[in-house]
Amino acid sequence: MPELPEVDALVGFLHERAVGRAVVGASVAAISALKTFDPPLQELTGRTIDAASRHGKFVDLEVGGLRLVFHLARAGWLRWYDELPKTVIKPGKSPIALRMRLDDGSGFDLTEAGTKKSLAVYVVRDPAEVPGIARLGPDPTAPGFTLDDFAAILAGRRTQVKGLLRDQSIFAGVGNAYSDEILHNARMSPYALAAKLKTDDVERLYHALRDTLADAIDAAAGKRPDELKDSKRTRMQVHGRTGEPCPVCGDTVREVIFADSTFQYCPTCQTGGKPLADRVLSRLLK
């Protein structure tokens, strides 16, 4: 799943390649992906892309007074073409959900792999009309997001920090991969309760959150969409590295398996050497 740093890089790429170009065609191949009907998608044709921005994991293109907003979900991606293929996309026959053609012949497809379709596209007049954007919490990378703001959010919450970091209504843009990396950098158990964190724990987690995302944003900046996935994978210290040695201490990276996802961590760095049990079966091995 693309998270805040990758979405930020996609926005930067679209700013360079698409802003200033007019839309000459927009079509949907996966009807379920289009979540709005007024204004219709065809209203984008003939309008110029004026700006590209990000709200959490949502990409927002301002197109002649309208907004094309999309969320790539778990298995979605943006495929850019300097020369867009002229082949007609057929519903249900390819992973393409939406195709956008620009006036210089370039354009992009929004694609989604797998059978579980969650990619979402909206055509709206105001991004606040998108329910997911309206519910977003603060952007943890914003210059004005302070340690005091962070501490106030955590105070009194009897919620495990792993889930808290991933909750888009709490922090916009952080997903499974970067929450693993943030907690590893903070040397903190994913099962730690926010309300029980000491002052120095909160400060350490705040700086790990900010620094991890800032480093990832810097590393992703300037890359083409087709380079971002591999770039993200190579930067991970624990996420997706089950069974490999931790780059900090050398202990074996372990994982916890949920019904539809997994997370990784280092026992030595994060849990005092104690392995975490699968949450389906138990909480923390004593």
UniProtKB/TrEMBL annotation:
GO terms for molecular function: 8-oxo-7,8-dihydroguanine DNA N-glycosylase activity; damaged DNA binding; DNA-(apurinic or apyrimidinic site) endonuclease activity; lyase activity; zinc ion binding. Keywords: DNA damage, DNA repair, DNA-binding, Glycosidase, Hydrolase, Lyase, Metal-binding, Multifunctional enzyme, Zinc, Zinc-finger. SUPFAM superfamilies: Glucocorticoid receptor-like (DNA-binding domain), N-terminal domain of MutM-like DNA repair proteins, S13-like H2TH domain. Its cofactor is Zn(2+). It catalyses: Hydrolysis of DNA containing ring-opened 7-methylguanine residues, releasing 2,6-diamino-4-hydroxy-5-(N-methyl)formamidopyrimidine. Residues 237-271 form the FPG-type domain. Residues 2-107 form the Formamidopyrimidine-DNA glycosylase catalytic domain. One of its GO terms (biological process) is base-excision repair. Pfam families: Fapy_DNA_glyco, H2TH, zf-FPG_IleRS. InterPro entries: FPG_cat, FPG_N, H2TH_FPG, Ribosomal_uS13-like_H2TH, Znf_DNA_glyclase/AP_lyase, Znf_FPG/IleRS. Belongs to the FPG family. This is Formamidopyrimidine-DNA glycosylase. The lineage of its organism: Bacteria, Bacillati, Actinomycetota, Actinomycetes, Micrococcales.
